[in-house]
Amino acid sequence: MAEEYAIRMVNITKAFGTKVIANNKVHLDLKKGEILSLLGENGSGKTTLMNMLSGIYFPDSGQIFVDGQEVTIASPHDAFELGIGMVHQHFKLVDVLTAAENIELGLPGKAVVDRKAIAAKIKEICDRYGFIVDPAKKVYDMSVSEKQTLEIVKTLYRGANVLILDEPTAVLTPQETERLFTVMRNMKADGKSIIIITHKLHEVLEISDRVAVLRKGEYIGDMLTADADAQKLTDMMVGRAVALNIERAEPKDLVERLRIRHLTVKDADGITRLDDINLDVNGGEILGIAGISGCGQKELLEAIAGLQPTEEGSSILYFPEGQEEGEELIGQNPRTISDMGVKLAFVPEDRLGMGLVGSMDLTDNMMLKRYREGRGIFADRKPPHKLAEDVVAALEVVTPSIETPVRRLSGGNVQKVLVGREIAMSPAVLMSAYAVRGLDINTSYTIYRLLNEQKKKGVAVIYVGEDLDVLLELCDRIAVLCGGRLNDIVDGRTATKEEVGYLMTYLKSPEEKEGQA
Amino acid sequence: MKFLSLLQSAIVYGTIILYGAMGEILTQKSGNLNLGVPGLMSLGAVGGFIVSRAYEILYCGSNGLTPNALLCILTALLGALLFSGLGGLLYSFLTISLRANQNVTGLTLTIFGCALANFYGSALLQKHGGVGSLSLAVTSNAFRAVIPGLETVTVFYALGWLVYISIALAIFMQWFLNRTRVGLNLRAVGESPATADAAGINVTKYKYVATCVGACISGLGGLYYFVDYVKAAWTSDGTLEALGWLAVALVIFATWKPARAIWASYLFGALSWLYFYIGGLNRSSQEIFKMLPYLVTIAVLVFVSLRRSKESQPPASLGLSYFREER
Amino acid sequence: MNHSHEPLIHIAKRDGIVWWKSWLIRLTGVVLALIVSALFIYGISKLDPLKVYGAMWDGAFGTSKRAWVTIRDTMMLLCIGIGLAPAFMMRFWNIGAEGQILVGGCATAAVMIYCGNAMPTWIMLVIMFAASCVSGAIWGLIPAIFKAHWNTNETLFTLMMNYIAIQLTNFLVSKWESPPGSNAVGVINLNTQSGWFPSILGQQYLLNVLIVLALAVVMFIYLRSSKQGYEIAVVGESENTARYAGISVKKVIIRTMAISGAICGVAGFVNVAGAAHTISTEVAGGRGFTAIIVAWLAKFNTFVMILIAALIIFLQKGAIQIASQFNLNDYASNVVTGIILFFILGSEFFINYEIRFRGGKS
What we know:
In chain A, 33% of the residues lie in helices and 25% in strands.
């Protein structure tokens, strides 16, 4: 009897360190000739699971069967041999080489590269599935979609029967996505099995035969796409609301602090990261920002902080206490913003790469933003030393001493140092990005408490988060970003998890928005 | 006549630099920035000196034999490749296995290599009674042998066969880097070791081999300098060290392309000797003229960084150590 | 599960290491280097290996004059290392110390030649100091400006600047040569000693020591305690963090390289006015390269630099002594320098990484 399953993953467990269990006894079956969607929120363990299939990680326990045979996949090379190919979100291509050269890289064969033969073989694959690849084109001349096509062709060229695509549509335009789906269907018709990781529900419904859902490292279940609809999938993905009992005071004395208008940001490659954002931020409330990762959260915060070049027409007005006139923050940098007297606290996502200096001790990190204070050429280390002691005492930072480089502290303590420093500047606006990522429960509650204290003091708090339960219990309003656009702003007290989850994955059409207004 | 004479000096001088630069191009293609080129070239020169002296003077001289030209060539080559290859191995071990900083290790190799070469070179001279007293005539003549048929042709009559080898090697390297599987993999290692690793390429092995072979090629430049330029009479005047730095400059000037390094090296040679052929220059203006190769290199360096042409950039991971992070 | 793919040796980056362990590792490296150097010297001299270091000590400190020359040369190397420290702390590869020393030396020599005997020595010293600072700073600024604005590779740029400085020096030497045709400048102001460092307390080289030690202290404090030193540290660690903190990365790069170049220029001043009393490319003589390694190994700590510089100069002087005793040449000293540097470089690995063998506990 022919084996029905191309891949079976049984009881797969993978932990990072002692605390984070990325996958807990996960099952996953992939039938031959099917397209399986792997659905889940950020941090649900989808990519980790697939990385074990492609040889990047090695499972702590569990079994993997390919074509019914139990196998060990210890390296990407092992995965190739078994006919498994993965297209990562970050492409693994060499810029200065051509498409053909990238495809041939590392393969055994004759000493001299036979370009004609390679080109012919590439053409054959392209013709069979409907790709367009110019073998002689250099990767640096390619668009994102061309690079992705090249990655897929590369895996097929190496004989992959099982393709794993990690959020392939995140970087594509709708037209390019359509083209990708066409070739996926062609590959399926040719007997290839495909796993597609995605957040976008309409794509799941459109392309896949079956959907498997992960949540917080656990396998939730699977269903045939024919039986699924957006609501059912959202329910599976986000789960039932969990009561966290985070304190939330009624906001009072709201005052407008930031008025963001027509904020548009393009990255170095010219891709639009934020598209015409209009948003008000008020003192005395916590504004949540929800969205799939990479939908413009980072750019939004960095634009406010003066770290992100913006497009013409963007405006961010800051309204100081008791002033009618707003001050423009666009075109400023962190230094000039601080010189303007704007007390802007920012807890960035990259704690050790941006918010703190890993090799420096607590004292030196405390003075990062205020080392210029005081007269003379010497930096006064007494106030930051005192501050470091205060933060350690108040937030119960576990550290051998004030002189310990922060790199050596645990993740939670690093975050306490960073948040403690930012709060100590008595900010008017406090922005935080993924403030509780990787932290244990107790530290997370400490962070929530600190944010709430700031809110009660009248600070405008912006909380970019990924856990919907937290966003819904902590925030007064939640702005939902989807693909760089502001999809909607909902009330944190009345919105449901399903509603927010839906807004994160399904961009409203302009008509729908019109109807709401 | 003046022009032909300049051309000839340019080619001789350029060939020394060309070997040094080709070795460094190969090394840099693997992502290793080896600032030890002057040291490697010196090691190549002294290696050739020591081993061919052992044959021509010690073995043949004391036994009253006539040195065999072919054996002279082989012993000199053996010495040059052995010494410079060991220098490359030392650099590789420190930077690849022990992950020492490439700049610092390369500079140390230059200090060490130049000193060791000059130490032994001068010591051997001294043994034989000082400067001018020891010259490996047979070895030198064997290397300076002119390709048959070119004896009467202008310019070419004065070029030893290592000149033609260098041109062939440059063209071969260009072809090797662009057309062969190993060359392709090597470029991937220098551009993006993580990608190469994921594609199943042994990054450490590629870096080691490229760096050591590169060191040997650079060493040949030293050997050529010794047997041809100074006619196998050792001098410790620092010329070779200066030429070694010019070789590093040439890598930039040639934008990491061996074939381009051929004419570029002759241009460097011509620029270095131009002062000699321009009439009416006094000694001080000559010194100013000698700045030219370096000024031109800076201009190219700046131009490349301004233009950001993808084709003329250094290998993307140049100067960085690579190790796969613990999973 | 099959673990056959796991390597036997496992290398992991250390989080940190207690200070005495790291110094023990370095000490082991130095001892090994000394043994290999002794073997090298034994190889050339057949001197009893145990007596080698006695002879070397004699070469470095055997007489009061030798001791002062050893100290003088240590100070010279230290001065360049001090200049390089801020650049390296910023992770800017200033390979151009050699050139910066030379232009500083040329400026000093120019003042000695053109203003010599025309004014009191102390005024001249001030002018020479300023001139060497400015010229060294300019030499450092050129690559820095290109680095800051266009990210031009500073390693290669500063390297090329060395050779331009060497040619510039040769040009000036031929302009100032005396006697004509000698291709050397000769001792400047031989009779009047105008512009020479005066003897202090009867010691010819005491002023060199005082200037360089003062610089060491000032640089130590500048990097440790000043606002600018803090900025340099942040930029070196992460440009992203620097921007987050409102530090202008370009400004810091340019300013720091001006300082770095200026101090290397001062090293040229100290050597020309305080030791050589002439100008030639030997004023730098490769020290700019050796000092790079000194500064790197000392991790920007100017006091640790004193130790490393003293060790290198001691070995060099000792090797020269032995070489001359056995009628060999001075290149032995740089061979020994190379050996010791290789060993210290290699020992850094065992400080930064720990090696575990599979099967055993970490």
